[in-house]
Amino acid sequence: MILIHCPYCDDTRPELEFAYAGEAHIARPLDPSALSDADWERYLFIRANPKGRHNERWRHVHGCGRFFNAVRDTVTDKFELTYKAGEPRK
Amino acid sequence: MSDLATRTAPVPAEPAEFPGVSISLSPPLARWSLRARDPAALAKAIGHMVPGKIGESAGGMLCLGPDEWLLRLPEGATVPMGEGLPLSVVDISERAVTLVLEGPRAIEVLSSGCPRDLSKFAVGYGSRTIYETVEIVLVRKGEERWSVDVWRSFAPWLWTGLTTAASHLR
Q1: What is the fold, at CATH topology level, of the domain defined by A3-84?
Q2: Which of A41, A62, B39, B80 is such that its CA lies 20 to 30 A from the CA of B22?
Q3: How far is B24 from chain A (nearest CA, A)?
Q4: pLDDT in tens, B125-148
């Protein structure tokens, strides 16, 4: 079982306590009505989908309940590090 | 129509006894979900000690998250609701029931479905976690005594899961 470090609990917990929540650091446009359809589509649906290092959101749903960010390798499934939501991309 | 609400227990009232562990339903408790950014303000508002570290418990209060606590007191207890203050005190007494596992093999029964390393739980440590697919709040009350809070509608399933695991002890 994969073990994931929760930056809020400061504890390493089994993956069953966590839920994946998509790519991290996607900011909602401040004025969506000013966007073209193509830009809006890009914000809603288009993701980096890298092979390798990926910044992504996770939620410690069966624990402290907090969202946080993680860097995971999408090939090996290895978690490089996790950090609190709101911190800059790592 | 009667004005009295009727409470029915979702699991048998009689404890289930197995070699090395007994599983029983705790008497009803009063429970509150407490949310606040500032633990000191919460402590002042409800007049209760507030543990600051996730997993710590003190006097029935368990810290579940960075701004979340669970307070469990004997039935009939009351706490101030903190009106007008930037915090939330919600009565969730009837949402959950508490099962108590007691005995030297209780840890084995819980480990049948809980992925945490329970031997690392110090006495007094508690946490929200998961048993198979059901969310629980697990607290180590004593060396051989554990309490499991589970949402009422999941309780019959959890009871079956725990008693089945206990019946496989040999």
Answers
A1: Folate-binding fold (3.30.2270)
A2: A62
A3: 24
A4: 999 999 999 999 999 999 999 999
- Chain B from 128 to 167: CB within 8 A of any A CB: 128-130, 135
What amino acid is encoded at A68 in this protein? F
- Out of A11, A16, A64, the one facing B66 most closely (by C-beta) is A64
Q: What is the pLDDT of residue A12?
A: 96
Q: Superfamily for B29-91?
A: Heterotetrameric sarcosine oxidase (3.30.70.1520)
Instruction: Supply angle C-alpha B63, B102, A15, rounded to 5.
Output: 50
* Residue B4, C-beta contacts closer than 8 angstroms, at least 6 positions apart: none
Domain B18-28+95-167 class, CATH top level: alpha beta
Q: Are residues A14 and B115 in contact, defined by beta-carbon separation less than 8 angstroms?
A: yes
Contact of A3 with chain B, judged by CB distance below 8 Å, is answered with no
Chain B: closest CA distance from residue A34 (Å): 35
Each residue's pLDDT tens digit, A46-74: 999 999 999 999 999 999 999 999 999 99
Domain segments of chain A as ranges = 3-84
Provide the shortest C-alpha distance from residue B112 to chain A (in Å). Answer: 14
How far is Cα of residue A36 from the mean position of the Cα atoms in its chain?
A: 26
pLDDT at res. B1: 60
Q: Specify whether the backbone of B117 is left (phi greater than 0), alpha (psi in -120 to 50) or beta.
A: beta
Q: What average pLDDT does the segment B104-114 reach? A: 97
Collapse the DSSP code of B137 into the 3-class scheme (helix H, G, I; strand E, B; otherwise coil) and give the result: strand
Amino acid at B41: A
Of the partner residues B65, B115, B135, the one whose CB lies closest to the CB of residue A66: B65
Choose the closest CB to B135 out of A13, A62, A66: A62
